Amino acid sequence: MITNVANVLHHLNANDKLSHAYLLVHQDRDRLVQEALEAVQVLVCEEVTKEGRACKVCGPCCAVQSGNHPAVNWLVPDGASLKIAQMRMAIKQDRRMNSFTNRTFLVLEQADTLTAEAANSILKWVEEPAQDRLFLLLARSPMAVLPTLRSRCTILLLSSKQLWEEDSRQERFDQVKKLVLELGSLLATKDPATWYFASDRMAKDGETEDYPLFGELLMAFCRDAVAIHYGVTTDVFEQNGDFETQARALSPQTWTRLAMLFSGLTKRLKAHVNAMSLLESFLLQAIDTIGM
Questions:
Q1: Which residues, 6+ apart, have CB-to-CB distance to 171 below 8 Å?
Q2: pLDDT in tens, 146-182
Q3: How far is 211 from 194, CA to CA, in rounded Å?
């Protein structure tokens, strides 16, 4: 557990061991923002204290605090999520900033709200380590960040009086993934029980806070099913016999249509609508898509 991100990153930077991307994790979003702010300040500060803290009074520190530092691009969700248009604009701005600064910073508040399209659009950007660029992604749970993006970051779990329990979160992630596999199997076999899944399974085993993650993993299931058809490595779901059988039960075109459908579900779930009725509505559309 990390108590102060700024101290950690300052020490790593002083020893030329600073990575290119960090995922900061804590339940308190305000704490995450403050930690990220202080981390950026200490890396641009002209008068770092002996304790490894930013002075907060020099020009660069004040510019970061006011949101006017030319090398810092700080993104917040546009509505309920971070969108692909924001990522494309950030990439363009980064290219311009690199021409007159030694290091650029991209901070993504609520990185767990990145749409799948937005996250995928920056994968190549994030996976290319560069000494002149630092990514800071802020999220309440690493499990809510696209696995391919999460794997490219060094995860820093912030400590607090109420410690973030990784084991508990992993257990919930595994439970949600199990539910997605169950629904995926029903869809693949065109089982009539698909219609009752929301009321029979999600109502019993799914917690309200898990619904957005359920939507993300359901979309990942469809995407990985398409990958199986084309011999591409899957991101989330293991290429075991059962999953491959399910994937090949429907055409890649059908899985693609389902992925597009469930992309809309994920966005709506993050908007805090009536999750149960919404899921039932989308399952009806899924049933129509697979031709039951």
A1: none
A2: 888 888 889 898 865 433 444 456 677 788 888 889 9
A3: 17
Tokens standing for residue 250: 């429907």
Q: Which residues of the chain fall below pLDDT 50?
A: 161-167
Domain locations in the chain as residue ranges: 5-157, 166-290
The CATH number of 166-290 is which of 1.10.10.10, 2.40.40.20, 2.60.260.20, 1.20.272.10?
1.20.272.10
* Rg (the chain; Cα; Å): 21
The closest of 52, 37, 17, 219 to 138, measured between CA atoms, is 37
The pLDDT, as a whole number, for residue 28 is: 86
pLDDT tens readout for residues 122-155: 888 887 766 688 999 999 888 888 888 888 889 8
Tokens of 285: 């559309």
- The matching CATH number, chosen from 3.40.50.970, 3.40.250.10, 1.10.1060.10, 3.40.50.300, for 5-157 is 3.40.50.300
